[in-house]
Each structure stands twice: as structure tokens, then as C-alpha cells.
Amino acid sequence: MEELKAYRPKTSPELDPSTLSNYTCFTVKLTTLHFDIDFEKKIVSGKVKYDLLNKSETDHVDLDTSYLDITKVSIQNESCDNQYKLHSRKEPLGSKLHISIPASTPKNFQLEIEFSTTSKCTALQFLDKEATDGKNHPYLFCQCQAIHARSLFPSFDTPGIKSPYKFSAKSPLKTLLSGLLIKEDNENNTVYFEQPVPIPSYLVSIASGDIARTSIGPRSDVMTEPVNLAKCKWEFERDMENFIQVAEKLIFEYEWQKFDSLVLPASFPYGGMEIPNLCQLTPTLICGDRSLVNVVAHELAHSWSGNLVTNCSWEHFWLNEGWTVYLERRILEALAVIEAKQQGKGDKEAHYYGEQVRQFNAIIGWTDLENDLKSMGDNVDKYSILVQDLKGKKKCQKKDEKEDNQSNASPDDPDDAFSTVPYEKGFNLLYLIEKIVGKEKFDLFIPAYFREFRFKSLDTFQFIDYLFDFFKEDAVKLDQIEWKKWLYEPGMPPIDPKFDTTLAQACYDLAKKCYQYALSEDDENEFTQFKLVANEINDFSPSQNIVFLDTLIAYEKVAGFSWKQHKKTLNRMATLYHDQYTETSNAEIKFRWFYLQATGEVLDFEVAMGEFLGTIGRMKFVRPGYALLNKVNRELAVRYFQRFENRYHPICKAMVRKDLQLD
Ligand code: BES
Ligand code: ZN
């Protein structure tokens, strides 16, 4: 702990370098937000009213905006059209909206702003009706995390401040917002929602289109385009309520009343997004075998880690995601225990099996982390650190600029810093703490931590201080953790956790056999010695297939070995595994399979990968997919990207453009 002293921020929670707003001066008592969707012009206009308490007697409000038109500003219902200024754009944070507060304004006051999005809005994606599955109506959806809410409405766009919301929206189509439905006024095409729990701006969301709804549990519905509704129901209804109950046992009661999910069109750029009361999911989860429901468990876990207890800035993102991955794996473990008991296993055996399932999932995460670090190239030193530094090159130290703590810096874009590091390094740090204090004691810490920081935004030091306070008797043990390495040094975690490989072993064994087969490819006698037969993967669960394929891909790292010199083996596998892999509807498997083949520069699969990238917009696949094609066949990569780029969400499009160095 001593070694961390130098890193401790001067004030806690640490200030957010990714906002231009003066959020520390205010309490936001209520945000009233109205959206008016224009599908023809592809813009959203609206009005936001902030009920503010001016805590520090400041004479101005600074808000974040990005590519917004501001049409009217008033304070206490008085128009103040010549008292505000929209500053010029400062990348990557956007344009500060500076509003002077008249001297006569009371401490508690209302600020109202009318605005409109523009075609450059990075949060929204408008889909023409042809791009939807039903093909009859256009669609609008939104993704605000990390710093895109400012392109949707003028905001204190930082996770460091929260507010309850009253939402309304006008649209000719079914419309959903981040809260509980209060009223539908069909005559005026207007819906009303409320979010009584204070939330940060990045959890604001809107979706509108031909959306149907059905129940998947006592407090859960699923919503999606009508043609896909039955499949979505089947995919999630077995697990939904079980997930909530297991999470409640692990932490404490679910505080948001309903947990509804919206399965979005294919261009949704993430696997899932934890919008309160409106969990948003990629349609790639609808694979027909319920094997990707872990994403729902993950987004549900955010109801505590992230949505109740929130990172104070994106530098401390691991507090959101590391905790969520930890909870996700505990939820899946608990369900595996229940399942094993139902199958007649005794208590001890069932718990042992549950733990093995958790370790297996942790292995998948560890491999993802290794692959991610490899793909970071020169940025690895910067982006593989757990507590990120987004302040930018030149840090502003001037004392007289308290409110504008980053005026001289050019901050980093949180989207650029996004990786599995906060997820998996974060998970591993929590797992290590659990190991050190023991699982039983750690289980007491979980609810205590979430209660302590409920409704708040915190930094890493507040977490650590609370941890040491909670485990006073174990402080000596906790002190042995190499904190500085874990939190502030790049690379893989300082400790190899040696996960239990029981469930992974079969995957390793078969992958090794394929590898040996490849090595003996040119030797007629040996070639047949390592017989590869199709049914060897028949007993694999979907996640075992993933580990098998990950292991095969990882052989590319072995010195002197490259799949492109072993096309015979790749072809043999392509024949054997055609039905299970080439034709699978599980995107996690399909992607890895195409990735392996394209790594070996098998042209048919480079093309298959290119085509696949036109059917999905999830960045987890799209970015590494194009990056690989770019490496093995740049011409093809660029051709496919240019063909499909307008299908992607603006965030995804911008990231791939950067990855392919097209700007
Ligand atoms: N909140 C994230 C998605 C996100 C992160 C969006 C940062 C924008 C910026 C979400 O909870 C998430 O982690 N999704 C994962 C799910 C996976 C880890 C199970 C995803 O999209 O793959
Ligand atoms: Zn998450």
C-alpha cells in the first residue's frame, strides 16, 4: 500500500478528465428530458430541464455537447439567449456549452435547453426500413457509453454525477427509454418513462421502431422486432429469473423493479449494454442453444456494479467491468451448482463442479486478455494498465484552474482505450483478493461494498481503502498484493492464477492433436497417425468449442509455426467440421473458425470472414475481423469495409477506420 501513495489523487473521487463540464459545482436533483424523433431528417430534437443546486456559488454552468445544435437556453423560465456560448470543438471531448448564471438566480434553479442532434451525432444510428429484419419500418437506437451522451443532449457527461430522470419521447413508432413506463399517450404519439434511481448520463438511451414485447420471467420482458420475438423468448426465458435470484443472494435485492431486455438490430456495436430497465443486447446472442446467456448475466450484474455503484471516471472503468465479470462468473457458477444438484450430484460434488465451471470461464477470459495485449502493438504499455490515464499528454497543474482541470491537456478518447484489460485484469485482481481472504469472507464483503457505495461514484482508492477497512485482520495478507503492479503497470496480471483446467483439457488435447497432424502433414506415414475424425468435437459444449478454437489460433504464437504453412490440415478440418463450424449459427464459434482459417490465409475463408463482417456490427468481432483481413489481405479488407461501412453504428465505423488507417 505504501508504494501507492504517489498515485493517490488529491481529492477523492478523482476528477473526470473526459468531461468539459463543471459538474463538481452542482447537485442534479432531477433531469427532465424530452426527445422528438424525426425519422425523415434522421435527427432527434428535444428539451432538457435540469433542477440544479448550485453547491459552490459558481456563476456559470458548463455542459458537454458534441455536434449538437443549441436553439434556446433559459434559466428560471427566463430566456437567456445572449448569455451562453458554444465553444469550438476540442477533440475528442466535443464543444463546451458555457452558460452564465444571472446574479439574481437562487441556489436552487432550473436550467432548460432546447437542442437538436445533427448528422454527425455519434450516439445514434438510424436504420432505413430495408435494414431491419421486418423491412416495414425504420429503426432508431442509441449507444452513449462512454462519452457519446453529449452528442444526444447537452449534459454533465461524466459518470461522476448522477440524477433521477423523467423522460418523454414523441415518435410515430414504439419507443423505449432507460426507465419504467409511466404512460402512453397514443393520440400524441408520446410515451412517458421515469427513472427514480439516480443514474449517470451514459445510461440514458432511446430506441424506436417496430418493437414487440413478451414475458420471459415474473419481472422480465424481452422486446425485439416481431419476427424475432419467439426466438428471443426461447433463448432467455429458462435463465432470466434464476439469474436475478442468484444475483440477489450474492449481493442484495434487485432495486430497479423490472429487468427488461431489448434485442437490437445486428449493427448494435456491443454484445450487451446495461441500460437500466432496458438491457440492450446484440442479436448474435440468439444462437438457438442458450449458450451465450452469460452476456445477460453480465448486464444484469451491472445493476449493482456500474449502475448502483459507478466508476467516477473512465480511468477507473475496471471498477465497473472487473466487478461485473467477477459477479457474472459467480452467477454462472451458482447456476451450475443448482443444475448439478438437479442431476443428482451431492452437495459437495455440485459445488466442486460449479467452481470448475467458473475456472473454465476464467480461462476463456485469460486467453482473450492475452490476445488483446498482443493486438495492442505499440499501445500495449499505455492501454494494458488497469487504472487508465486518460488525461492526455500534457497534464494541467495550474492551481487557479480548479473547475477546468484539463484545460491544457489533449485527453485520450475512452473508446480508444477500450479493451478486455479492465474486464479480465479487474476480474483477476478481485479473484486474487477472494483467494487471499477466503471465499466465505469475501462473500460478506460483496454486499457490504455495494451498500456502502450505492448511488455513488467512486475511484480505485476508495475501493482499496474500504477493502482494507473491511478486512482489518487480514491487512498483512492484503499488503502482500503487488498493488502497484496490478494497478499501474502494463502487461498480463503479475500472478498466474493457475485455473483448474479439468473442463478445458479435452479441448487442449484435441487442439494438440490437430497441431501434431499439421506438423506431420508432409509425411505420408505420419500424416495418418494422428487421425482426425469429425465426431471428436461432437461431445463439446459450445464453450468447449470456443476453447478448442482459441487454442488452435494460439498455436500461431509458437516459434517457427504458422498456419499458412499447413493448409492441408486446415482443409482437412474444414471438411470434418463443416456442419458444426462453417454452418453454425453461434457467432462466437463461427468468428473464431473463420479467424483460424483466415490466419492460415485460406482464401475461401478470408472471403467468408469478409461476408460475415457484413452481417454483424458487434465490435468484438468486427474490429479484430477487419484487423486480421488487413494483415493477410489488405485489398480485400478495405474492399469489404467500404462495401459495408454504412451499415455500422457511427462508433464502430470510426474505430474500424482508425484500425485500417483509412483517415
Ligand atoms: N458496458 C459494456 C459495454 C460498453 C463498454 C459499451 C464500454 C461502451 C463502452 C457492457 O456491459 C459489456 O461489457 N458488454 C460486453 C459483454 C461481455 C463482457 C459479456 C460485450 O459487449 O461484449
Ligand atoms: Zn460490462
3D architecture notes:
With 663 residues, the protein is of the alpha+beta class. It is built from 22 helices and 22 strands. A hairpin with a 5-residue loop joins strand 19 (272-273) and strand 20 (279-281). Helix 2 (240-250) crosses helix 4 and helix 15 (542-554) runs parallel beside helix 18 (587-599). Residues 395-406 have low confidence and may be disordered. Bound molecules: ligand BES and zinc ion (ZN).
- In the predicted model, the low-confidence regions spanning at least 5 consecutive residues are 395-406
Distance between the termini: 44 Å
Question: How many whole angstroms does the radius of gyration measure?
Answer: 25 Å
What is the averaged pLDDT score? 95
Describe the main β-sheet briefly.
8 strands, mixed
Protein structure class? alpha+beta
Give the helix/strand layout.
Blueprint lengths: L25 E13 L4 E12 L5 E6 L2 E8 L2 E2 L4 E3 L8 E6 L7 E10 L6 E4 L11 E4 L20 E8 L3 E4 L2 E6 L4 E10 L6 E4 L2 E6 L2 E5 L4 H9 L2 H11 L10 E3 L8 E2 L5 E3 L12 H8 L8 E2 L5 H26 L4 H29 L4 H4 L30 H4 L3 H17 L1 H14 L4 E2 L1 H11 L4 H5 L3 H6 L16 H15 L4 H4 L14 H13 L12 H10 L1 H5 L4 H13 L3 H11 L5 H14 L1 H11 L5 H10 L4
Parallel strand pairs: 1-11, 17-18, 18-20, 21-22
Antiparallel strand pairs: 1-2, 2-8, 3-7, 4-5, 4-8, 6-7, 9-10, 11-14, 12-15, 13-14, 16-17, 19-20
This protein binds ligand BES and zinc ion.
TL;DR of this structure?
The protein is an alpha+beta fold and 663 residues long.
Question: Which structural traits does this protein have?
Answer:
binds ligand BES; single chain; 663 residues; binds zinc ion; 8-stranded mixed sheet; alpha+beta; 22 strands
